[in-house]
Structures are given as structure tokens and as C-alpha cells.
Target: Zinc carboxypeptidase-like
Amino acid sequence: MLLKGFLVAFALVGLVQAASLSQDERIRYDNFSVFKVRYETQEQRSRLRSLVEEQNNFKHWGAIKDELHLMVSPGVLSQFKTELQRANLSAEVMISNVQELIDSEKEADSRASADESFGWKKYSTLAEIYAWLDGILAAYPTVTEEFIVGQSYEGRTIRGIKISYKSGNPGVLIESNIHANEWIASATATWLINEFLTSDDVLVRQMVETHDWYIVPVLNVDGFVYSHEKDRMWRKTRQPSADSSCIGVDPNRNFDVRWMESDGASSNPCDWNYGGPHALSEPEVQAMTDLVISLKDKINVMLAFHSYSQVLLSPYGHSSVEFPPNYDDLMAVAKAYADAVAKLPYDTVFQYGSVGGLLYPATGATIDLTYQEGIEITYTVEFRDTGHYGFILPPAHIIPNSEEALAGIMALLEKTEELGYMKSKKKL
Ligand SMILES: *[C@@H]1O[C@H](CO)[C@@H](O)[C@H](O)[C@H]1NC(C)=O
Ligand SMILES: *[C@@H]1O[C@H](CO)[C@@H](O)[C@H](O)[C@H]1NC(C)=O
Ligand SMILES: [Zn+2]
Model:
């Protein structure tokens, strides 16, 4: 649907209408819409970016090269239209009512809750994920082991699980849900943990048993709980800011690697990509940093699970023209993942490139830390979709998305091995 027709219907809505709290105190997004805007020039891009700074009315959802996805409150639709005209831009409606999507997701979740098992037909809460993890640790005591990443700002424990069938394996570290609202990340991470322990497929068993797995299903625990209980669209941590009423930091811009360089994060505490008052200001990011440094000699591959866009993003985040020394290998490995996903019957296409090259500058991310610490095969994996449901991916996608992740990871590890990155890292 083109913007023009859509706007006529809403032109009279008028006054600014911020997201409101309902009786159960969840933030509602009635009649909030999400638009895809394609731009060509840097001037158009910066005009769009200045819109996003108006926190309550415009929220950044996603971006792929030359395309921005913006959530717009119903009160400012006509302002939005004017801004687009000024910038000579056209927009397409991606989601016409965000609240409707949230409601149908919730409905699917409560339908699945009637069924007691953890069946990946719904998005689970942190409490459900942790209870399930306890069950897994109890059921597979010889091959699993818990590790504690640290404590969150609000005092929650960030838990991880190690899966190892023999010692001396190359290591794979998986970080998931550093961004709170990307629920498909932890849904997929937990599905993979289950599959690694229960699959009787010969190839899966071989891959699982010849690697040591360190998986953190939910890193941003405070934000994740908040996204379930208060605001489905919450992305950041929950630590208040000293000089703003806006809460939280984008933890994937808070690592101490080129922090705030190259316009790779925002210094405005109200922005979606606020880098924090200083690097490592967030206890969750400090804890993840400590984990990476303590494990780095054992880890050959690191993956950070995110949504959405269907891309594999390698370092670096700070530049669109500077690439890591083994960029060609990183792209060959990413291609193996994308090709494996393409062989499944879902028609899912993954792109790949570096963060700075394929998207936009983003600094202080986990993958830049892991790369700096010598983990040379490392990616942000942005799962489904490319901009139909975006963050509110219906739960029916959990299992297909997870199957894609499994096939992708199997191919990725095989290619990594072939290129010689799986050797023991002790004493190089
Ligand atoms: C959403 O828009 C519809 C159609 O214009 C309107 O009837 C309804 O009252 C709006 N809902 C809210 C909560 O503003
Ligand atoms: C606006 O965009 C159209 C189509 O891309 C182009 O033909 C036209 O020259 C642009 N006008 C201005 C003022 O930039
Ligand atoms: Zn993310």
C-alpha cells in the first residue's frame, strides 16, 4: 500500500499521540504503523535520522542498505507525510497497526501455554526459559554444565550452558537476546540446545559432539523481562541515565571497542542506539566482556543472535571501506550458511557482508570485541524476516527459523574447519 492513500484516512487525527499504558500497564501501540522508506542520498538519510530523534513518535525498527523501517505514531502521520515530501521520499506501509500484531502474538502464546511442554510454539518468558534450562541441566548432567555470565543491573542472573561431549573440541560461543525485543533469538537458541542434546540425525550428532558449545540464551535479562511485562518493543538495558529521564543503553553499542567512534552509536540517552555514558557502563556488557576474555583461548567461532533482516554480518562495524584481514574467509563461511539455508524448503534468503559495509556504522558491538580478542570467525546473525512482521515474528516461525539456524551453523562450521580455523588455539 502506498503512503498517500493511507495518509488521507488519518490526516485529521492531529495531535501528538504517544504510546499509552493500558490497565495492565503494558504499553500499547494502537494504530502505530511501520513504514519502509527507501532513500538514495545522504541528505535524505540524515533527514530520516533526525525524525527518529523524536522518540515518542518515530521509532527506528530496522535498516538494510538504503532502506529504513520506521514506526510512526498515529498522531504524527501528517507531519511524517510532509517530511517525506520535503525529502522527496516515498514510503510503503509495512505494518498498519502494531498493536494488532502484538495482540495476535499474545493470543498464540496463551493458546500454546495451555500445553504444558516447552514446545517452541510460543515465545517463553525468562522464568520459563530458566525453569526449562534447569530441567535440561538435570536431564543431561554428564554433557551439560551451567556457567554464570554475571548479574544484571536489576540483579538478575545471566545464565549460560556449556555442552561438551569430549574435551579438546574447538569451541563455539553463542550470545542471544542482547537486544530485548528480538524474541526469536532466545527461542532459536533454546531450540538449538534441545536439538543438540536430543537429535539422532547422524550429521547433527557429529557436529554437536565435535564442538564445545557455550550458549547464553538471554544476555539482556532485564530488558527481556521488561519486553514481556511492559513494552513489547523494548530493546535496551534497564539502567537509568544520570542526566536524562530516558532509561537504558543499547548494549550492543556499549562494548569497549571503538566505542562511539565513526558515528557508530548515539550519545543521546533517548535514542534506540545510545552507546551509554561510557564504554562498559552496563553490567551485562561488562559480564559478557569478562566471559569472552576468559573463554577466548577455547573459542573458534562466535555468533550473536539477533533479528531481523536475514543477514550475516561480520566485523568491522566502524567503517564501510575498511575490512578485517580475513574478510574473504568470513564471506566464504557466511556464504556456506546462506547456501545451506537456501536448500531448505522455506525460500529464505540470507545476505552477508560486514556491518559497516552492508548496513551502517555501528561500533561497540560484541562481534567487534570477539574479533579483537582473536576469535576470527564471528558474526551477528539477523534472523527472519526481511520486514513483514519485523520484531513481532509470529510464533509459527520459531521452528522453521530454528531449522534454518541449525542447517546454517552446520555448514558454517564445516567451512570454518575447511579453511583451517578449527585448530586448537592454545599456544599459537
Ligand atoms: C485506531 O484507528 C481506528 C480507525 O481510524 C479508530 O476507530 C480507533 O479508535 C483507533 N484506536 C485508537 C486506540 O486510537
Ligand atoms: C524526486 O525524485 C524523483 C524520482 O526519483 C526525481 O525524478 C526527481 O528529480 C526528484 N526531485 C527532486 C527535487 O529531487
Ligand atoms: Zn539486535
Observations:
- The longest helix spans residues 398-418.
- Residues 179, 182, 306 surround zinc ion (ligand 3) (CB under 6 Å).
- The first strand starts at residue 20 and ends at 21.
- DSSP finds 13 helices and 14 strands in the chain.
